[in-house]
Amino acid sequence: VQLVESGGDLVQAGGTLRLSCAASGYTFSIYCMMWFRQAPGKEREGVAAIDSDGTTRYADSVKGRFTISKDNAKNTLYLQMNNLQPEDTGMYYCARESGLGDCLRLGDYGVDAWGEGTLVTISS
Hints:
Oligomer: single chain
Largest sheet: 7 strands, mixed
Helix content: under 10%
Number of helices: 0
Radius of gyration: 13 Å
């Protein structure tokens, strides 16, 4: 299993970014996939999740600004981030939920694979 994130960058507040996560080594379409982030000095938090049937869930802090999506044909997970704010700064990680947890609760209990992360920095 391999997850490789890309798309992180330095942008000004109010800007947009699109993160991608290329998955390989397993049947991408049948798993719930998630995005987590970790800000400097803070704990990692679940940001968004998309289940195998396309059901999505967002943290309250990003609802209405971020959109999670996936392309099963390309084995790729996306996170469209609009109206970015300085508090969105952090390392963003793609993750696969094994099915043992509750993916749509945005917890990491069932995560069994992580990417290396991509850095998002928002300047004010």
